Amino acid sequence: MTKNHHKRKGQKITQAQLRELGSKLVARHRNFYVYVIFGFLAAVINIACFLLFHNVWKIPVIYANTVAFIISNLASFSFNKHGVFIQNVDKQHGVVYQLCLFFNTSNKFAKRFKDHFNKK
C-alpha cells in the first residue's frame, strides 16, 4: 500500500488492507496501549491492597491508604520500567534515583489532584 492511501469514491478497501492499517495503528501506539493496561493493573493493585489492609486487617484508613499507594507505585514503576518504556531508557541513572523521581512525580500529581477537588 502506498503512502497516499486515500481511496476514491466507490472503491472498497480489502480485508488485507484493513488488517495492514490496523496493525500499523497498533504498532504506532503500542506504548499507549501497554501503559493503559498496566496503569489499570496498578489501580487494581492499589484498591486491592487498601481493601486488604483496611477491611481485613483493620488498619486505620490513613495508614492503609499510604501503604497501598506505596505498593501500587512500586508496581507501576516496575511495569513502566520493564514493560512499557523499553526503548530510549535512561541508563545513566540508577534504579533508586529513577524510583525517587517516579515517587516525587506521583506525589506532586496526587497533591494537585487533592487541591483541585478540595476547592471551596
Q: Helix and strand succession?
A: HHHH
Q: Could you report the average pLDDT, rounded to the nearest whole number?
A: 86
Helix-and-strand structural type: mainly alpha
Rg is 21 Å
* Fraction of helical residues: over 70%
Strand segment count: 0
Please report the distance between the alpha carbons of the first and last residues.
Answer: 57 Å
Largest sheet: none
- Uncertain spans, ≥5 residues at pLDDT below 50? none
Describe this structure in words.
It is a single chain. By secondary structure, the protein is mainly α. It is 73% helix and 0% strand. Helix 2 runs antiparallel to helix 3 and helix 3 (61-84) crosses helix 4. The longest helix has 27 residues, at 30-56.
Overview features:
73% helix, mainly alpha, 120 residues, elongated, single chain
Write the layout of secondary structure elements.
Blueprint: H1 15-28, H2 30-56, H3 61-84, H4 95-117
Short description:
This protein is mainly α. The protein has helices at 15-28, 30-56, 61-84, 95-117. The chain is elongated.
